[in-house]
Amino acid sequence: MQRALHAAGRPTVAVDLKWAFRGVASYGPPLADAIEAFDQVDIVAHSMGGVVARKVLAERPDLRARVQQVITLGTPHHGTESARGLPPDFPRDIGDLQPDSPFLQQLPSLRELLPDRPLLAVAAQWDVVVFPLHRALPADMRQLVLPHLGHNGLLTEPEAYAAVLDQLGSSSAG
Fold it and tell me: Quick one: how far is CA 46 from the chain centroid?
C-alpha cells in the first residue's frame, strides 16, 4: 500500500507497530508520535491499526485537529470472531477484540471522535481474520466492501489501492 501511495504522489509514513500480538494499548505511543510529527495527516489503518487509531484519538484529543480523514482496512471495529478462544498467554487486550467486548463498546467511534471528517471503512468479502463482514463496517462510516479480497489483500491488491487513492483524492492532507 505504501508503495502504491508513493507512486501516486502521496507521501506516507508507515508506523511500525512491531510484533503483532502485543495488544491494542501497547501500540498507541508510536501512532501518537507519528501524528504529532505533522500538522495534517490522513490515517490509513489496516486491521487492528484502526482500533489503535480510535484509542489514540480518544486518549489524545489534542491530536484530533491534525487528522483530516481516516480510512480503515479490515478493522475489527466491532470485534472479530477470530479473537474468540485465544490461548491464555496472549496479551489480555487482544481479547478486547472479541465481538462486542466491553473495551470496544466503551471506545468512542471514529465518527464521535472526528464528527466532521471523511471516514471510510473498507472490508474484504473473504476476510478470515476480521469476520463476519459487518464487524468491519461501522454504520456511522462510509462503507466499501471489496468482493474478491481477503484480509491481507486489503494491503496488496490494486482494488484496495484504487479505493484508498479515490478516498484520499477528496482531501488535500498528506
Answer: 5
Residue pLDDT, tens place only, 118-135: 999 999 999 999 999 999
What is the spatial distance between Cα 150 and Cα 64, in angstroms, rounded to a whole number? 30
Superfamily of chain region 2-168 = Alpha/Beta hydrolase fold, catalytic domain (3.40.50.1820)
Q: Where are the domains of the chain?
A: 2-168
Please list, in sequence order, all residues whose beta carbon lies within 8 angstroms of the beta carbon of residue 2, skipping any fewer than 6 positions away. Answer: 12, 14
Q: Give the span between the Cα atoms of 150 and 127, in whole angstroms.
A: 4
Under DSSP, the state recorded for 72 is E
pTM: 0.92
CA distances to 4, 19, 34, 35 from 9, rounded to whole Å, are: 9, 29, 20, 20
